[in-house]
Amino acid sequence: MILNIKNTFAEIGETTIFAKRFFKEVFIPPYETREFLKQCYVIGYRSLPLVAITGFIMGLVLTLQSRPTLVKFGAESWLPGMVALSLIREIAPVITALICAGKISSGIGAELGSMKVTEQIDAMEVSAVNPYNYLVVTRVLACTLMVPILVFFADAIGIIGGYVGINIHGDVNFYRFLTQIVQSLEYLDLLPATLKTFFFGFFIGIIGCYKGFNASNGTESVGQAANSAVVTASLSIFIIDMVAVQITDLFF
Amino acid sequence: MEKQSGYTWKLGMFVTIGLLLFIMAVYFIGKQQNLFGSTFHITSQFKTVSGLEVGNNVRFSGINVGTVEQIQLKNDSTVVVVLVMKEEVRKFIKTDATASIGSDGLMGDKVLTISPGAKSKKVIEDNGQIASVDGIEMHDIMKSVKKSVDNIGVISDEIAIFSHSMNNGNGALARLVKDDKMANSVSNTLSNLESGTKGFSENMEAAKSNFLFRGYFKKKEKEKKEKQEERKEKQEEAKKEKLEKQEARQEKQEEAKKAEEKQKQEEAKKAEAEKK
């Protein structure tokens, strides 16, 4: 029991050191631009369909679910504003981050894990290529920058989903729908939500990389690395979300 | 190199569209808050702003034209409210416009409403000041409600006294309601009155046949008869006129029907001819 807790703390400590190394090596050349762009493509563009579908469904379902309650209060006209607000503030960032944790974090964990197990990482070190710089920095950076953009897409598509959801029961002009949304939004809704997505992206990347990079020898550890990467990344997303919302609540 | 360009343009498109969405969101939200585009400022002084907050809407003729930018206490009974408004509406707001604070719906936010003045034709300047009208406060309503409730209290007290004296007093009304003897004497009085009036009408008949008054009553009867005859004649004449008019109408309608039928027949014939 105590050993278990000790191991957990040890892992958190090692992850912190791993993350610290990232900040050190980000600024040190050589910059692996091509690898970075490729990772951006894989992480960002390839995840778009998945994020788009989930975003659309979240918008649609949220509208349909919150409609009866608002109708009860006679506040049906607040529906677009409410849906957009909850999408932009909370649901789109968290859902997108969870999807990315499932898709990207596990992918990175499995990829780096198998590279570690087949000793490709050691081979890179021998041939004077910094594996950390080439593999970890590019992936983490790509994650940090691409997840917020995916969240913007999820926001926009979720709003379209909300529009479809509203038009199932009534008839609302798209322009009117947009004005209602814009009227109910402030910078305070958009900016903290955007800021926290950078953290989501960073943690998804760094946890996937750490789990993969530290896979012990043996093929089964590849699966373990992928699995624990998803679990830890998902958990950390919720913890970050809680902290971020509390901080936003404190200041504004 | 070719392989690389295969995904770079997709990546570029992805990033561009994503950032564009973000910029659009920022722009539209900013537009809502009047941060972009040309604006002008107006100040107005209130005694109380009744919960108005920075960022609340400003309405002119029911249209959202700006927001509340600043609310400052000037002294213990004056609050200065600074409004930022769209430049386009400045030409409609004259120097004698007035600002008032109302609420948007039953549970809605506070809204600052600018009402146009009557006389002035001078357009308001940037940073100009307009007069304010104190809106109806909740406690004002409560005051008037309290006044009515107080009055109702006085009235109900009086009703209580009235009904008490009705039940327990010895006044005429109370006795009328309660006392059997009183009721009996009232009904006796009424029956006496009835028989009295019968006797009176008999007296009158006797008076008619009296020679002193006979002439007067005969004259009256004659006048009555003449009037009735005149009325009858008039009514008969009116009936005749009506009948004549109705006959004339019927004739006209029949003529019109005949004409229509003729036209239809002709048209049918024409159509047949065309078909052939």
UniProtKB/TrEMBL annotation, chain A:
Keyword Manganese: no
Pfam families referenced in this protein's UniProt entry, alphabetically: MlaE (PF02405)
Transmembrane segments: 43-64, 140-166, 193-213, 225-247
Intracellular or extracellular location(s): Membrane
UniProt topology in membrane: Multi-pass membrane protein
Annotated GO MF terms: phospholipid transporter activity
GO cellular component, one term: ATP-binding cassette (ABC) transporter complex
Keywords recorded for this protein, A-Z: Membrane, Transmembrane, Transmembrane helix, Transport
Keyword Transmembrane helix among UniProt keywords: yes
Principal subcellular localization: membrane
PANTHER family, A to Z: ABC TRANSPORTER PERMEASE PROTEIN-RELATED, PROTEIN TRIGALACTOSYLDIACYLGLYCEROL 1, CHLOROPLASTIC
Family (UniProt): Belongs to the MlaE permease family.
Protein name stated in the entry: ABC transporter permease
TrEMBL record, chain B:
Keywords, sorted A to Z: Membrane, Transmembrane, Transmembrane helix
Domain Mce/MlaD: 41-117
Protein name (record): Organic solvent ABC transporter substrate-binding protein
Lineage of origin: Bacteria, Pseudomonadati, Bacteroidota, Flavobacteriia, Flavobacteriales
InterPro entries: Mce/MlaD, MlaD_Phospholipid_Transporter
Membrane-spanning ranges: 12-30
Region called Disordered, residue ranges: 222-276
Organism whose genome encodes this protein: Flavobacterium anhuiense
Pfam families with a match to the protein in the record: MlaD
